[in-house]
Amino acid sequence: MSENPMSPRQTAETASEMPFLDHLEELRWRLIKSIVAIVIGASLSYIFSDRLFSVLWQPLQSAAPGMKLHFFKVAEAFNARLKLSIVAGCLLTSPIVIYQIWQFVLPGLYRREIRIVYLIVLFSTFFFLAGVIFCYFVMLPYGLKFLLEQAPPNTEPTIMMGDYLNFVMWMILAFGLVFQLPVVAFFLGRIGIISSGLLKSGRRYAIVIIAIAAAVITPQPDFVSQGMLAIPLYFLYELSILIVRFTGRAEPVRGKNLAG
After folding, report:
1. What CA–CA distance (Å, rounded) separates 11 from 27?
2. Rounded to whole angstroms, how far apart are CA atoms 126 and 69?
3. How far apart are CA 211 and CA 89, in angstroms?
4. What is the pLDDT at residue 205?
5. What pLDDT score does 251 carry?
């Protein structure tokens, strides 16, 4: 049986021999297509922005029924609607953007690497959606309710629309991103950079890093918001240890008496 003239190795060699300017031209067109897709997605999202806003408004209604949002600046409503449309457009067209990135890097990969990337894309999408769903249905309603219940007696909260949208969108995106930790651990474990033993021994340092990351990522500098992100992130770290243990490269047995 004759060998395929365009095997993955030959494809990678052809990509590596492509002139630098051709690489830039390919990258330019991939970026243009991605930007056009995002603009179209944002435009469609702007048309349905009222419905999108109603979806993001639900966690506040679950936490405090009857609560209304306010705005005092003339352009604040438009800016909030525009920001919501752009974020929704990016999420809506993310498969197209990922496809463009995939088509750009695919010629430089071998068959084994392509299989790993397929798994990474699949699990990355799953964990991102899991983070978004967990934040929307669990963390936001209970977190908002707890924060609003801390108001002193005889006070009434006045929540700005722009501040609320920033808080909700950042929390949703933050949870979607931090839920990628098991995927990153899977990739690093498969290529042999990390091991489950290394993650276990670094648990105390990981707790400090998680606390710092939660303080940086959360849009509001308060203990509750940071805890809402740090606690799930720690459980994801423990999950990453199990994933690396069962899917990573074989780890050397320590403490074995080699002298016999």
Report:
1. 18
2. 32
3. 31
4. 92
5. 55
